[in-house]
Every structure is written in C-alpha cells, then in structure tokens.
Amino acid sequence: MATRRTSWPQSLRVLSAALLEVLRAELALLTDECKNWGRRLAVAAGLVALAFGGLASLMLLLAYAGVRAAQSLFGLGPWQAPLAVAGVVLLAVLVLVGVAYLLLRRAEDPIRATRRRFADHRRWWQERVLAAGAMTAASGPPAADPPSRVSPEDDDPEDDDEG
C-alpha cells in the first residue's frame, strides 16, 4: 500500500491556516471576555456608587438624629429611632460593598486570561505536537487533543504576582 505524503510547503500552509484559526478564535474570545469584564466592572462600580450614596444617607440620618435628639418618636428615646434607621442603612451599605467586592474578585482580567490560554496552547504544542515529531514512526501519530480550557479560578503559577 502506498501512502501519500504531503510536501513541506503544503504542510506549512496547513499549519499557518491552523495558527490563524487559533488566533481568530482567541481574538473572538478576548473580545467577549473584555465585554463581560467591562459589564462586571460597571455593575461593581454601580454598587460602589450606591454604597457611597448610602453612606451619604447615613450622614444625613445622623444629622437628623442630632436635630431630633430632644424628641421622642414612637415611644423610643430621643436617639433611638434615628439611630435604628441609620443602623439599617449601614447594614444595607455593607451588603452592597460586600457584593461589589465579590464581583470584582470573580472578574478575571482579559489580558491575563489570554496569556494563560496562550501558555496552555504553547504547552500543548510542545508536549503533544513537537514531542510527537521526535517519536519514531513505529510509535504512531501524535495525539490530536485540543488544549483544555482552564477555569479562571485556577491560578497559573507563572502569573502569580500577588502575595
């Protein structure tokens, strides 16, 4: 049986087309991730703005508590009712800040995600394709598994510049 071998120029064309396809896919994914990251950042910024608005309301309520210090409201002492309302507003502000913090913590920087994926592609290329080229013909063809996508929660030790 005769097997048809491809020429080097044809192999390079196929390889360059595959590389361009990977780059197009990465660019599309980077665009989507930038949109999602921007959306999360906008939501978190809105929550922080609400929290600052809540803090301003808290200051107004404390001023109101000072004005109403001599009066009694609903049978409570002169300071109790306004401070109770201020406590509820403070609790709401803390919840908003906590949610904004969690949203910002979950959002992954798109540039870092792209670097991580390119490192994964490069690792796959070196481990699967180039290592398979060094194998003898008796070993068989190289594995054609695509690189696995690592979740954003998994940290890459190369990019670990945080304490």
Question: What descriptors fit this protein?
Answer:
163 residues; single chain; mainly alpha; 3 helices; rod-shaped; 68% helix; 0% strand
Can you tell me about this structure?
The protein is an all-alpha fold. It has a domain at 20-114. The protein is built from three helices and no strands. The chain has helices spanning 8-67, 80-106, 110-133. Helix 1 (8-67) packs antiparallel against helix 2 and helix 1 (8-67) packs antiparallel against helix 3. The chain is rod-shaped, with a radius of gyration of 29 Å. The relative contact order is 0.09.
Termini gap: 61 Å
Q: How would you spell out the order of helices and strands?
A: HHH
The protein's oligomeric status is single chain
Strand proportion, as a percent range, falls in: under 5%
Q: How many β strands by DSSP?
A: 0
Helix/strand layout:
Blueprint: H1 8-67, H2 80-106, H3 110-133
Provide a short characterization of the protein structure:
The protein is mainly α and 163 residues long. It has helices spanning 8-67, 80-106, 110-133.
